[in-house]
Design a protein that fits this description.
The protein contains eleven helices and twelve strands. With 353 residues, it is of the alpha/beta class. It has two domains: 123 residues, Aspartate Aminotransferase, domain 1; 221 residues, Type I PLP-dependent aspartate aminotransferase-like (Major domain) (Aspartate Aminotransferase, domain 2, 3-Layer(aba) Sandwich). The strands form three sheets. Strands 2-8-7-6-5-3-4 form a seven-stranded mixed beta sheet, sandwiched between helices. A three-stranded antiparallel beta sheet has the order 9-10-12, covered by helices on one side. A two-stranded parallel sheet has the order 1-11. Helix 4 links the parallel strand 3 and strand 4. The longest helix has 19 residues.
């Protein structure tokens, strides 16, 4: 199996697994207990917190959560006033914003998937935007959106799940949500970064283990997250160069019969979302079962709905449903990607016959 679905989740880094194992095998103490074993577990949690924090702006604190979905729910539900977001956000933002019942404005995007950071209306309490889009990889002008939000007296929430460790997070944001399993860490843990001076009411009650967030932390998950974050920092230049080589290889081998969805320059190049006229994606996935790729966002797969992101870019339903997403990164070899692209292209061409 050739794995090309990095936007859905990334392979666990061996170093992250190694960091987790002692806390799974022997370090079973509760990190919130006062005895020595508990203090040792707590120390591992705090080391991990520092490692995760190193990829955030300064002047804030990291609160561990069960994942980015919880972090986004907490930030959105904890803010007050109207909400402004974009038409291409993840369901964890859009559905949560709708669930609050507060006034909601969705900013449109252009054909590249980019939003224009217009003036934010008075009465807005929160502006929420992705750093890197999970479906098409475009990098939003988050710094400009944050400036507009602050002029209106609103907080700026950045969903940095796809960009954390890959694209610089602007210093101007107030809240940042991330998830470990998108950076080669374990599933089941994420974090909300909260700028100093900002207080959110608790989303979860029952112990206040993290001060504002209740629930017993897993030293193993924290350690894995921390190790993965450390690797993202240490391997930044190497990973970026590798992804750029893979992008160039994939685009060249696909050729002119495929059209890239979204911006090609203001984009994270580990995300290649492409379409081919008349492509039957379900048949392609059946014919290429040894390749793991996506017909859209993993969170909406199987729903039968047209991607709201591709629709927001102006694609017709036919164009959106003839699109696939290929995601690659650190552990994708050039040989693997070359073989996969050639197989996908050949299978697509066979549909024309």
């Amino acid at each position: 199996m050739i794995y090309l679905d990095y936007q859905a989740t990334t392979p666990l880094a061996p170093e992250a697994l190694k960091a987790m194992l002692p806390w799974l095998e022997q370090g079973h103490a509760n990190p919130h207990s006062p005895h020595r074993a508990g203090r040792q577990a707590r120390a591992a949690v705090e080391v991990a917190r520092d490692q995760v924090a190193a990829l955030f702006p300064s002047g804030g604190r990291v609160v561990f959560t069960s994942g980015a979905t919880e972090a986004l729910n907490w930030a959105i539900k904890g803010a007050t006033g109207g909400i402004v977001t974009t038409a291409v956000e993840h369901a964890a933002v859009l559905d949560t914003a709708r669930a609050t019942g507060r006034p909601l404005t969705m900013l449109p995007v252009d054909g590249d998937g980019l939003v224009a950071p217009d003036a934010i209306a008075e009465g807005t309490g929160l502006v929420a935007a992705m750093l890197v889009n999970n479906e098409v990889g475009t990098v939003q002008p988050v710094a400009a959106l944050a400036d507009a939000a602050h002029r209106a007296g609103a907080l700026m929430l950045c969903d940095a799940v796809q960009g954390y460790g890959r694209v610089a997070i602007p210093d101007a944001v107030d809240l940042i949500a991330v998830s470990a399993h998108k950076i080669h860490g374990p599933k089941g843990i994420g974090a909300l970064w909260i700028r100093n001076g900002i207080t959110l009411p608790p989303l979860l009650h029952g112990g206040d283990q993290e001060g504002e967030r209740s629930g017993t932390l897993s030293p193993a998950l924290c350690a894995g997250f921390g190790a993965a974050a450390r690797l993202m920092a240490e391997r930044s230049a190497e990973d970026t160069a590798h992804v750029e080589r893979l992008w160039a290889l994939a685009v060249e081998r696909l050729g002119p019969d495929w059209t890239i969805n979204g911006s090609t320059d203001r984009r994270y190049h580990g995300n290649l979302n492409v379409r081919r006229e008349g492509l039957d994606v379900a048949r392609l996935m059946s014919d290429c079962r040894d390749i793991a790729f996506s017909a859209g966002s993993a969170c909406a797969s199987g729903s039968g709905r047209t991607s709201h992101v591709l629709s927001a870019l102006g694609l017709s339903e036919r164009e959106a449903k003839s699109s696939i997403r290929i995601g690659f990164g650190r552990y994708t070899s050039e040989a693997e990607l070359r073989d996969a692209i050639d197989e996908l292209a050949a299978a697509a061409e066979s549909q024309d016959r």
